[in-house]
Amino acid sequence: MIRVLLIDDQPLIRSGFRALLDLEDDIEVVAEAADGKEGLALVRQHLPDIVLIDIQMPVVDGIEATRRIAADPTLSRVHVVILTNYGMDEYVFEALRAGAAGFLVKDILPQDLLHAVRVAARGDALLAPSITRKLINRYVSQPLHPGAAAGLKKLTNREREAVVLVAHGLSNDQIADRMVISPLTAKTHINRAMVKLHARDRAHLVVLAYESGLVAPRNS
Q1: Cβ neighbourhood burial of 45 (10 Å; 0-12, 13-18, 19+)
Q2: Residue 81 contacts residue 51 (beta carbons within 8 Å)
């Protein structure tokens, strides 16, 4: 059972998402909150698998709430997915840097929301290739933390290659095809790179790839 917690200051959004998610046999909405402060308390109480959280909220906004969740060792198994009204919201990249596993637009199709929740529950990043490129090109004009490059020395050539492909938004199967290896081997390379770079998840791995300069932003 995938346990979901909703945090959004719009009751209609929460009720709509809850109604949809609760229809699924493998998904359960354990709680909902109208602001980040209340949401953080409920996250610690229920320890959900997924937190769907709005960026702009009163008291504590979604980015700060995400940052606090990511910084709490007791919440390491909680995956935060940001909800935004616009696919290119100016705060999205900051949310990823804060520790979000990905983001969704609020007008997402029902079947896509269900798929996204299941993907996030597996620990995969919710970053479609086209969105990844646009997002990075727009908000990362240069590495934000040059010191992050030091961690790249720990990677093998194949791990480094896999990280680059993850940063370009490719799935494990696509990475396997590109590297001419099995999907399991591709996943192994990625997981080892995440451990060496201390990446929380694939979304964090994407951020590190750009911040270290391993992948350079390209013009749209």
Answers
A1: exposed
A2: yes
